[in-house]
Amino acid sequence: MTENVTSILPIEDMLPAVAQGAIGIACRSNDERMADYLATLNHEETRLAVSCERAFLETLDGSCRTPIAGYACKDEGGNCLFRGLVASPDGTRVLETSRKGPYTYEDMVLMGKDAGKELLSRAGPGFFDS
């Protein structure tokens, strides 16, 4: 359907929802054979990016109906670049933040949580209620 595309929105103009475009697969916890098979499908760079984004969303206690966006990616230097955004439900207030750090699971989860805590603090109580 590429013939129907009129423009591609750059990340700088519109952050996507958390984990947008990532595919998650679940399997039985006691099915070692299936878990081994599914591990071959894993894309580690994406898994780490989604972990950062989900840590951000979890800290904000967001849902699929909360106006929250987050995007983590690997920059040219191999570091994680994370950008996050929250908006009031009526769109009158938009708060943004960003983080940069090592592209490792622990560091990226901490970045996501820290970014979420910052925006919660800046937003104040009742931000998502308006």
From TrEMBL:
Pathway: Porphyrin-containing compound metabolism; protoporphyrin-IX biosynthesis; coproporphyrinogen-III from 5-aminolevulinate: step 2/4. Keywords: Porphyrin biosynthesis, Transferase. GO terms for molecular function: hydroxymethylbilane synthase activity. It holds the Pfam family Porphobil_deamC. Residues 48-120 form the Porphobilinogen deaminase C-terminal domain. GO terms for biological process: protoporphyrinogen IX biosynthetic process. One of its GO terms (cellular component) is cytoplasm. Its EC number is 2.5.1.61. Its cofactor is dipyrromethane. It comes from the Eukaryota. SUPFAM superfamilies: Periplasmic binding protein-like II (SSF53850), Porphobilinogen deaminase (hydroxymethylbilane synthase), C-terminal domain (SSF54782). Residues 3-35 form the Porphobilinogen deaminase N-terminal domain. Belongs to the HMBS family. Tetrapolymerization of the monopyrrole PBG into the hydroxymethylbilane pre-uroporphyrinogen in several discrete steps. This is hydroxymethylbilane synthase. It comes from Punica granatum.
